[in-house]
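Sequence in, structure out. Go.
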Amino acid sequence: MGAGPGGLQLGHWLQRAGADYLVVDRADAPGAFFERFPRQRRLISLNKAHVRSDDPERKLRWDWNSLLSDPAGPLFPEYSDDYYPHADDMVRYLADFQTRQVPQVRFATTVRKVRRDGAGFVVETDDGCVSAECLVMATGWGKPNVPDIPGIGHAVGYEDAPADGAAYRGKRVLIIGKGNSAFEMAHRMMLDQAEMVHLASPNPLRLSWNTKHPGHVRGQYGALLDNYQFKTLHSVLDCTIDRIEAVDGAFRVWITYTHAQGEQEVLDYDMVVRCTGFRMDTDIFDDSCRPSMAPNGRIPALREDWRSTDIDGLYFAGTLAQARDFQRASSAFIDGFRYNLRTLSRILTERYLDIPLPHEEVKLDAESLTDAVLDRVNWSSALWTQFEYLCDALVVSGRKFRRYEDLPEDYAITRFGDQETLYTVSLRWGRADHPDVFAIERHPAPERAAESAFIHPVVRCYRFGRLVAEQHLLEDLLAEWRRPDRHVEPLQAFFRGRQ
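Output:
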C-alpha cells in the first residue's frame, strides 16, 4: 500500500524478482505527499550532483533523493541541479521512475479496510477486494500528530498553514514544535518580517550537527538561531504549553518554563501554528490485524526484519519503518530506506518465493578478510548512509566465510546467533558527548581508533550471538581507509587474533 518513494522502491525489487505483487495508492500519481510538503517547497535532502568520482555507487553517498534500480535510472540529479531541490522536481522524478520501473501500480484506489483472512490478508478497496499472503504498508504519514493541549484547535496545522510568508508580516506568531517543519516555517516568517516568532516545546532543541541525524534541525535554518541570540525577540522556548484561548481576535497562551523552577507566563499572539509532525493512521485495520505501535505512539513497533511485532505477514516500508533505528541512521528518509527496502525485498522473496538470501564467499585467512572488508567500506553507499544500522555479516562456512550484505545488525545477530563465529562490518561515529563538535581533541593513533569522532569502520566479532571483540579503524578526512599502518595492519592483526 502506497506509491510514494517507499512503495515504488520496494515495487522495483519485487518486479525484478518476478514476484506476484501489486501497489495501490489513493492518489492519481506517485508521490502525492510531495505535492503538498514541505510547505516552503524546498527539500532538506541533499542533491550533491558534482563529485570527483564516476562510480555510480559512491555517487549515491551524496545523492539523497534517487531510488535504487537495476538497470540504473532514472536518477534524481537528472531532474535538478539544486543542492536543496524543489519538491516539484521530486514529483516529476517519481512519476518517471514509476513509469520505467514499477508497472504494477493501481492508482485512484482508496483502501477502506484491511482484515485477516487465514494466514493472509484481504484489502477492501473502493474497486473491490485484493487478497495477499503478505501486506507491506508504505503509506507514509497518514495524519497529523496533534498534541493533547487544551485549546489546540485554535492552532493552524502545518499541513494547512499559509506558505506565503506575507501572511505573517507584522504579526506575533507562536509555533508549537522545534523540528525541521517548525524551523522551515519560522525561517520564512522571519525573512518576510513577522514581528516576533516563538518556537516552543518542552525539550531542548536538537541540532543535526550535534546528533548526526538528518531529521534533527538542519544548519540551513541557523539564521533564526542567530536572531535569537541577537535579541530580535525571535525566541526558542523550552516550555510546556498549558492552554490556548481565543481573546479579542488573538490568542492568549499559558506556558510553564522547563528550566526555570516552574515559572509560568501568559503570552499573547496573533497566530498559533502547530508543527508537531505526523503519525501513522491505523484506522484502516480491523481488530484482527491492528499492529502495535512503538513507544512514541506514532510509528509501528517492528521486529528486526521490518515485520510487525505482533501481526505475522504485515511489514512496513519507507518512513514508517524507522522504529529499529529511530533518530539514529536515515531510515526515515529516501537515502536510508532505499537500502532497507532492497534488503527487505530479499527477505520477502526468501520467505515467499524460496529464493535464498544472496551471499558471496570470502577466504578465511586474515589477508583475504581484510581486503574484503576494506573494499566494502571504501565503496558501499548503503553502509555509508545507514551507519550504525546496516552491516555486512560474515559467517564461517567450512574454510570460508559467507558474506551477506546490507543486513540490519540486530537482524544479523538474531539470524546467525547459533553460529560459532559471526563478524559484522559497519560504519560508526565516535562518542557523542563532545562539549563542542567543532573543537574535538583527536588522537590519531591506531590503538585509539575507538575514540574517532568522525565516521569510521568498525568490525565486531560474535560467538554464538555474544559480542566478544571489536575493532575500530581510524577516521579519515576523505573517508578512504587504505593506509597500511592505520587500517590494513590493525585489521589483519584483529582477524589473526580471532582464528
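Check: Residues 388 and 428 are 5 Å apart (CA to CA). The chain has a mean pLDDT of 95.
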